[in-house]
Amino acid sequence: MNFDLWLGQNTNLSDSSIYKYSHAINTISNDMQKTGIIKKRIIDMPLFEIDLAISLILSNKSFSNKNIIGNNMYSSALKWYRFYIKSDVFTDVAVQEELEKIENSNITEKEAIIKSRIGQGLFREKLLNKYRFCVISKIDIPQLLVASHLKPWAVSTNNERLSINNGLLLSATYDRLLDNGLISFKSDGKIIISKIIDKENRNRLDLVENQEYKIQCNQEMKTYLEYHNDVIFIT
To answer: Is the entire prediction scored with pTM above 0.85?
Structure first.
């Protein structure tokens, strides 16, 4: 399904917003390819490459200037496009593809990173020790808990991938909400909720805007939260 058609069928965006966002993706692709920031069109990228591309694009000065002039329309278009792609993605990138990205790591580090990605290793253990339960639901059955990254795996360094401050312990539903940019947190632990989640679903999910949770945020975690709010979270 095309991006603009998907937006029309799955969001409450106005026709003018749908038009602007769908055309913005092509504009961003063309501009960033010309400057060499990306090598191919965004619409030809899998999710793993999209996360990398978004990180590079947002750090580009010419894009930032254009985005400011456009009242953040271009960065919003990227968030919506990421959400559109994730709506049709049910599995993470293959471990082999991830290994290619970290091929210079030593064997021990590779094993730790791979295990952390599939929820079996050091990253998950650290979050289980830190929180002990889902920070939202308080569910404490380990088998139901997910080690959720704030800054996505694809754009994180090896150290960031394993950093306890780059994660939250969440039950599966809330993990998907965070990963898709439908919820996020302020540094004081107050939750912020995307407008995509309507009142009925907020009630079903027991989500209340600005409700405070004990996420134990420090200065390092604050930088990861800022990344998630700026790059992933859909207002």
So the answer is: no
